[in-house]
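Hi V.,

You were right to ask for the full record rather than a summary. Here it is.
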Amino acid sequence: MMRWRMGKGAVRCRTAALRRRGGFTLIELTASMLVAGLCIGATVSALHVVTTGGARLAQRSEAQAAVGIGVNRMIAELSMAMTVVSISSTGISFTHPDVTGDSVDDQITYAWSGTPGDPVTRKLNSNAAAAVISGAADFSLGVDVRNAAEEFQPDRTPELTVASHDIYPSIFVVDPKPVSNSEYVAEYFGVPNYPNSVACRITRVLISISANGARDRQLALTIERNQSGTYNPDGTALGRVDFDEADLPDAFQWRQFNFSGVEVPVGQGCTIVLRGIGGSQGAWVETHLLSVGLLDGMTLRYSSNAGTTWSPALLTISDMRFFVFGEYVLNTSSGTGSLASGTLESVHLHVQTAGDDPVVVDTAARCLNRPSLAGQSMAAVPTR
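Predicted structure:
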C-alpha cells in the first residue's frame, strides 16, 4: 500500500485555495444588496405606473366617450336647425324637425351657465333641462354668417305733406295779391308734430302764381321763422330761391321751389314769403278770401312797405294756395343693433371639461337649412 506524504508547501496552497472558495466579503455583500434594492424599486415603480396609468387611461377614455356622445348629439341636431330663436356665445335655441312624434317642430336649447364646473344642458321644448356634458370648464360657440347686414332705423321719414291749402277757387272768392319790391305776400304755417320726430327738413314748396305785366321782375321765395307771438315772418331766411317773372305763365299755375338744408324744429311756426328784388312789374299770387282757416290752420300776411309791417290782423281767414313738403327727422338715426339679414352657415363648438386632465373638443356643425338670423341682436350673435 502506497502512502503519499505532503509537504508543508502543499498544505499552504490547499489552505489558500479553500479560503478563495469561501463567501462574499462585507463590501461585496453590501454592494450586492444595494443593486438588488435598486432593481426591486424600479420594478415596483414600473408596476405602479402601469397599474395607475391604466386606470387613468381608462378614466380618460370614459370621459372622452361621454363628451363625444354629447358633442355628436349637438352636431346632429344643430345641422338640422330650421329657425334660430336665440343665440349667444354660451347657448343657442332653435327649432328642429319633429323629434317627439307629434308632427310639430320642436324647440331645442343648448346652454351653459358660464360658471366653470357647471354642466352643458339640453332642453327640449318646455321640459326640464338635462346635462349632456357634465362639469364643463368652458363651452363656447362661434358662428359663420352669410350676408349679414345691420338693421337700421331710418333717420327720417319719406317726404310728407307738412302743410297745404288747395280749396277749389270756385268755392271761395279768388283774391290775387301782387308781389313787387315793396309789396310782399307771406303765408304762415306751423310744423305739426310727428311721432318720434325732432325736426322737419323742408324739401319743396308749391304755390299758384302767374306773371303780371312786362315780365321783367326778379323775385325771391324764402322760408322764414315767424316772429314770437305773431304770424308775421321775422325777416331771416332759412332758405331762399330766386326766380324770374319771365318764367311764369300768364294764368295761375303751380310752380315748384326746391330747398335743401332747411331744418325746422317740430312745433315751430314758419312763413313762406314772396318778394320782388328787381324790375318794374310784379307777379300775382293766387289767394282765397274767406278761406276756412280753422280747418287749414294757415294765415295769409301782406305787407305794402317791404316787410316793415304786416296785415291783416291776427286770425285772418284768408290763405295762399300752397303746399309745403318735408321729411321729418327722427330721434334715432343709428342702427337698431339687430340683424336685418343673415343666414347661419355653421356653428363652431369649443368644449373643455373641468379637472386636472381635461378633455378638449373643437368641432363644427354645418347648418344644412341655413336658418335666418334676421332680428337677432348683433351683440349677441358670436360671429367668428
